[in-house]
Amino acid sequence: MADVKGSCLCGSVRFEVAGRFDSFYLCHCQYCRKDTGSAHAANLFSQSARLTWLSGAEAVVSFTLPGTRHQKSFCQTCGSALPSDQDTDGLVVPAGCLDTDISLQPTAHIFTASKASWYIKLDKAPKFKRLPE
To answer: Signal sequence: where (predicted)?
Structure first.
């Protein structure tokens, strides 16, 4: 996979990842649901890829939930999820912060025993290209 670039919502943090991703997980655990405010996190994992902060590294804050391996990095200005370079899990990159399109499709849904009760038959929900009126 070619190098990919990403940024936060406000644009103050920019980064590049060189190397390949090993997996792309949609995680339904209670921690990922809490820190994304959604049904699941969408994270890319790599043991070998290298992260380079292009700008705004000083705005990146990391939080590790005490007693767990769960870590989240984010922009202290806008709160956007950003990559974490973790000792145990390697590089974890939230897919939503990438500015470069990737061809890798999700590898698996994980921790589905913890999925939100309303996360069923979502493909049957109405679809709109914009906010409905």
So the answer is: none
Within 8 A by CB and 6+ apart from 40, the residues are 26, 27, 28, 32, 33, 109, 115, 119
* pLDDT tens per residue, range 38-51: 999 999 999 999 99
Name the β-bridge partners of 46.
91
Pair of tokens at residue 115: 């999925």
Is residue 74 in a domain?
yes
Best CA proximity match to 92, nearest among 29, 27, 33, 37? 27
Count H helices and E strands in the chain, helices first: 1, 11
Q: Which residue range(s) make up the domain with 68?
A: 4-124
Query: pTM here?
Result: 0.90
Element at 33 (helix H, strand E) = helix 30-36
Burial 12-48 (b: 16+ CB within 10 A, else e): bbbbebebebeebbbbbbebbbebbeeebbbbbbbee
**Residue 43, amino acid:** N
